[in-house]
Design brief:
Elements: E1 2-5, H1 15-19, E2 24-26, E3 33-35, H2 45-54, E4 60-63
Antiparallel strand pairs: 1-4, 2-3
The structure holds iron/sulfur cluster.
The site of iron/sulfur cluster has 13 residues, from helix 1.
Organism: Micromonospora haikouensis
Keywords: 3Fe-4S, Electron transport, Iron, Iron-sulfur, Metal-binding, Transport
Protein name: Ferredoxin
């Protein structure tokens, strides 16, 4: 699985960071999402899927 971020769409709500802080973080410059990795570890996959579904801006998606 690979995480794809549409950074232009992100509104910096931080929901993804709260859901899985091992994978998502917010930029100190503009508050927008950044990835620690685009290929989450197996034990993070469920939380990443939750984060993708919760993103209010639909800025996150998954590729197989
Ligand atoms: S939940 Fe979506 S809008 Fe909020 S910081 Fe993460 S990617 Fe950006």
């Amino acid at each position: 699985m690979r995480i794809v971020v549409e950074r232009d769409a992100c509104i910096g709500a931080g929901q993804c960071v709260l859901t899985e802080p091992r994978v998502f973080r917010q930029s100190e410059e503009d508050g927008m999402v950044q990835l620690n990795t685009d290929r989450p570890a197996p034990d993070a996959v469920e939380a990443v899927e939750t984060a993708v579904s919760l993103c209010p801006a639909r800025a996150l998606s998954l590729e197989p």
